[in-house]
């Protein structure tokens, strides 16, 4: 049974004559009669009683009519709500991003998009990379700002190349150095994110390239917290340069691998809703963000 069948059932109940209802619905009388017979068969009982004056709802029909009105009303409301959400000029974009992008790249991205599309709403989610990919897969998010570039059916626009730096507390022996080699950190405690995070893998790889294993003192999922702990002298930290310098001193690393490229990704195996497509067009036109 389709929603239009329920609309016709409602019309028939309102007119009580098949001929009149058929005229309003622009159907032939036999077509409407067959539709009624099909609906009654599907629901398992008679809904109307026929007599010389036309058709009249019986108790089963009254129950079906109330349900039909509720279903049609909910369906129409759904269509209106979806139309609002999907309107490219005033709909909604679902954007997810790495926690470390919350105070730097994402605000700049959204500020410029708001200027270009002031009536489009953007809902936000923060998560680590593995959760961002899950949010994209199940449709909770339409776009994600993350690192590294995902494999599989994902589009990709590089947004920002981030240089990784050593973040040390003021007064640390390395704070005035122009460049630091990873080997020089062998005796320092490290504050970093937990194992399993993409950024932790990058940090571990930097140590491993010099034959080192980091001596981790504290772990936090939030890079701002990592920076604060390092600034309190509880260990050094390796951070994107945008995340260092609040309570720490940022010192460049000598390793060429001390960088990451953050980008915007989306599922390329499905169509984007109009507002999300508009957001993508904006990002493409805006180009890299430093």
Q: How would you characterize the overall build of this protein?
A:
The protein has 290 residues and is of the alpha/beta class. The chain folds into 3 domains: 3-86, Winged helix-like DNA-binding domain superfamily/Winged helix DNA-binding domain (Arc Repressor Mutant, subunit A, Orthogonal Bundle); 93-159 and 265-286, D-Maltodextrin-Binding Protein, domain 2; 160-261, D-Maltodextrin-Binding Protein, domain 2 (3-Layer(aba) Sandwich), CATH 3.40.190.10. It is 41% helix and 22% strand. The protein has 9 helices and 11 strands. It has helices at residues 3-15, 18-25, 29-43, 59-86, 105-116, 129-137, 198-208, 223-231, 274-286; strands spanning 48-51, 54-57, 92-97, 121-126, 143-146, 154-168, 189-192, 215-219, 237-240, 249-252, 259-267.
Low-confidence stretches: none
Instruction: Assign the CATH superfamily of the largest domain.
Output: Periplasmic binding protein-like II
- Give the CATH class of the largest domain: Alpha Beta
CATH architecture of the largest domain: 3-Layer(aba) Sandwich
Oligomeric composition of the shown chains:
single chain
The overall pLDDT, averaged over residues, is 91
* Helical run tally: 9
Tell me the helix content: 40-55%
């Amino acid at each position: 049974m389709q929603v239009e069948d329920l609309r016709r059932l409602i019309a028939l109940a309102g007119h009580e004559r098949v001929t009149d209802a058929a005229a309003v619905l622009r159907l032939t009388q036999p077509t409407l009669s067959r539709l009624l017979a099909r609906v009654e068969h599907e629901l398992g009982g008679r809904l109307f009683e026929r007599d010389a004056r036309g058709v009249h709802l019986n108790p089963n029909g009254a129950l079906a009519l109330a349900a039909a009105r509720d279903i049609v009303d909910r369906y129409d409301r759904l269509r209106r709500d979806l139309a609002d959400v999907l309107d490219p000029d005033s709909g909604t974009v679902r954007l997810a991003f790495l926690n470390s992008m919350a105070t730097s790249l994402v605000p700049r991205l959204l500020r410029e998009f708001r200027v270009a599309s002031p009536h489009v709403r953007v809902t936000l989610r923060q998560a680590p990379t593995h959760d961002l990919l899950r949010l994209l897969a199940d449709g909770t998010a339409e776009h994600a700002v993350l690192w590294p570039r995902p494999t599989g059916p994902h589009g990709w626009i590089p947004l920002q190349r981030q240089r990784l730096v050593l973040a040390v507390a003021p007064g640390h022996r390395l704070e005035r150095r122009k460049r630091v080699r990873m080997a020089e950190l062998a005796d320092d405690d490290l504050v970093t994110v937990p194992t399993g995070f993409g950024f932790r893998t990058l940090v571990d790889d930097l140590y491993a390239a010099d034959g080192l294993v980091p001596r981790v003192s504290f772990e936090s999922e939030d890079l701002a917290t990592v920076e604060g702990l390092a600034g309190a002298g509880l260990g050094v930290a390796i951070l994107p340069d945008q995340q260092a310098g609040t309570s720490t001193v940022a010192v460049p690393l000598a390793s060429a691998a001390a960088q990451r490229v953050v980008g915007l990704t989306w599922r390329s195996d499905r169509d984007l809703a109009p507002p999300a497509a508009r957001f993508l067009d904006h990002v493409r036109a805006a180009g890299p963000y430093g």
